[in-house]
Design goal:
The chain is of the alpha+beta class. The protein has seven helices and nine strands. A seven-stranded mixed sheet has the order 2-1-5-4-3-8-9. A two-stranded antiparallel ribbon has the order 6-7.
Length: 214
């Protein structure tokens, strides 16, 4: 089920921060109550390989997201305690020490299941034993959601496990959506902050294409 154009699910989930505090986060309420955009990114597992590179990359860009009135929240299906262990592990040992944004600990998979981003296939029910089995690790793909100040999803994307994200693309998407909100124009292919946008009508596209023929 796609969530673009819809409200983000209204669910509270355990979270952990770098201080070792466990608390609840409702992503929808974070956006609406703070009048901020939210970038929520899911990764498969703590203490793995591509994942720490992404968490550090989002941390490095945190100031840029803050300039854009955007909260960053990480998420996986690990427990809060495992998150804190990873947060307490140095980069030299594959850890994410230095990450300061909250990380959801969706260990009961309520939110991940609602979003439909879990790595599970071939679900089978055994009539004799009543046991349900699945293929896959039952952890999340690299799913990313951008949510506006009203709690509406304006971008979602899902990468397979081996494919790390480009953090700059999410900054570009936030810039583009903010431009739409503030200027009422739409953003053409490869738009970046400072480039021409266009009016969403026939004359607008004709003018844009003629001005950018090369």
């Amino acid at each position: 089920m796609a969530f673009v154009g819809k409200k983000f699910p209204n669910l509270s989930v355990n979270a952990m921060n770098e201080l070792g505090d466990t608390f609840k986060i409702n992503v929808l309420e974070e956006a609406k109550n703070n009048n901020k955009k939210v970038l929520l990114f899911w990764y498969p597992k703590d203490f793995t390989f591509v994942c720490p590179t992404e968490l550090h990359a989002f941390q490095a860009a945190l100031g840029e997201f803050e300039k854009r009135n955007t909260l960053v929240i990480g998420a996986s299906c690990d427990t809060a305690e495992v998150h804190f262990a990873w947060l307490s592990t140095s980069k030299d040992n594959g850890g994410i020490e230095g990450v300061t944004y909250p990380i959801l600990a969706d260990s009961n998979r309520n939110l991940a299941s609602t979003l439909g981003i879990l790595d599970i296939t071939n679900e089978q029910y055994d009539d004799e034993t009543g046991v349900v089995t699945v293929d896959g690790d039952n952890v999340t793909y690299r799913a990313t959601y951008l949510i506006d100040e009203e709690g509406t999803v304006f971008h979602e994307g899902i990468n397979h496990m081996p494919l790390g994200r480009n953090v700059n693309e999410y900054l570009r998407l936030v810039d583009a959506y903010t431009h739409v909100q503030e200027k009422g124009e739409v953003c053409p292919a490869n738009w970046e902050e400072g480039k021409d946008a266009m009016s969403a009508n026939r004359n607008g596209v004709a003018s844009y294409l003629s001005a950018h023929a090369n």
